Amino acid sequence: MRRIVLDRTSEPPDVHRVSVSRGLVDHNVRVRITFATAELAPLVSVGGLAAAASGLVQALRRADVEVDVLLPDYGGVTLDSEERIHLDLPDWAGPGSIRIGDHPAIGRVHLVDVPGITRSHPYLQPDGRGWLDNTERFLRFARAVAAHVDATRPDLVHLNDWHTATAMAAIDASIPSVLSLHNLAHQGATGAEWIPLIGERGHHFEWWGGMNPLSGAIALADRIVAVSPNHVGEILTPAGGFGLDGPLRDRGQAVVGVLNGIDTEVWNPSADPALPAAFSPTDLSGRQASRVALLERLGFADDGRLLAVCVTRLTDQKGIDLLEPVVPLLDEFPLRLAVLGSGERDLADRLAVLGDRFGDRFAFVEGYDESLAHLMFAGADLFVMPSRFEPCGLAQMQAMRYGAIPVVTAVGGLVDTVPDAERHPRVGRGFIAPEPSVAALVSTLHRAVRRCGDRRRLETLRRRVMSVDWSWDAPAAEYRAIYRHLID
Question: Which structural domain, as residue segments, surrounds residue 482?
Fold first, then answer.
C-alpha cells in the first residue's frame, strides 16, 4: 500500500505560510493545524467533546486558521467533492484510508477508516455495553492520525482525549503539539503489549505494568489544556486527577486551562425555531410563551411556582441521584422539577418511579430531544446541575443563554461560569452548592427559590446571565495564542 503525501501547494497565492517568528504575528501568515477527535457535532455527538470540538474548529476557521479535522469514519456520512487517500500504516493498524470532503454543517473534514472503526455507535453496543475492542479501534485511529501528520507536516497537532493520545508515540517531536483533556475519568488504559507497537516513543506510555494513552501524551505534548481554569487545579490533586495528577504536576506550567464556549447561533433565543416566540435580554416578553408551552408539555398546571429543569446524561458524574431525595420535598420550597436525559438504566428507572409517584411536582422525560432541551431552558426559572465533577460543563452556559438561572456544585468549570449571586451581588449569575451532597443541594435550592421568588430580582438576574458572551471567540483566541507560542 502506498502512502500519498497531500499536496500543500494548492493554497491561494495571496496566503504566505511561514512559521511565526520572535513572537510577531503577521496577519498574512496562515497557520495550519491537524485537529483529531473521536467526536464532532453534528456528525457524531455523544457528550461534551463533540460540541467543544465543533465549536473550537469553527471559531478557528473564522479566524483564518487552516484546520484539518480528523474524525473516525463510523459510517453513514456523505461528503461532497469527496476524494480518498491511503495511509502507510503498520500491519496491526491497517489498512487505512481517509475520505476527505465537505459537509454542509462543518465544512471540510477527514474521515479516517481503519479496521473495526465503523460502528453503529462510537463506543457502545446496542445493549449499552462498550464494544469489546474499543481500545484497539482507537489505537488504530490514533496511529492513522500520526501517519497523516507525517504525510502532511502541519504547523501544529491538536489531540483530544485518550482516543487520539497515542498518536504522540509516532509523531515527529519537532512538530508542536497540544493535548486537550475533556474528561480524565476515561483513559483507555490497556496491556503493555501495545507499547512497542504504537510508535518510537511508545515507552513514554508505560503505566504500572500496562499502557495508558493519556499518561504518555501528557509526558510528550508541548501543552496540556484542561477545559476550564478551575479544573486545572482539580486535576493536579489526587482527588481530581484520576491517578494522573503526578504526571500532570510534573509538567508544571505546560498545563493550562481554557474555558470552553458554546455555539451561540444554535443556542440563540432570539432566532430559535424550537421556541414558540423569540426573546432577548432587552425584550423578555416572548419568554412567557415558552413557559406556557413547557408547562403544558410536562403536564404541570401554571400556578406560579418556580420551575427548575435538568438536562443531562444519567451518570454518576452528573450527580442526578442527589435529586432523588429532593423530589418529595419540592412542595416545601415550593418548586417543580423536570429532568430530561438518558444513560444508566437503573437511574432512569428510579426517576420514572418518582415521576409516577410525584407527578404534580416532578416530571422525567427519558432520552434526548434537542428541541425539548431548548424549550426547557427557555421556559424554566432555574437550571439544576449537581455534578460530582465537571471539567467545564456546557449545559449551564446554554441554560443561561436562555435565561434559566443555574444552581450548580462547586466543581470544575461550574465555578468559573457561575459566580454565586448572593456572595457576589454585582456579578453573580446563579447559586453554588459548596459540595455535591443532598444537604448542600437542598440548602442551595432554598437560597435560589428565596431570591428568584422575587420577580424583579429574578428578571435582573435573568438579563445579566443572558448578556454574557458564551461564544467560542474568546476561547479560540486563547488557543491561537498557545499555537503561536508553540510554533515560535
Answer: 32-261+472-487
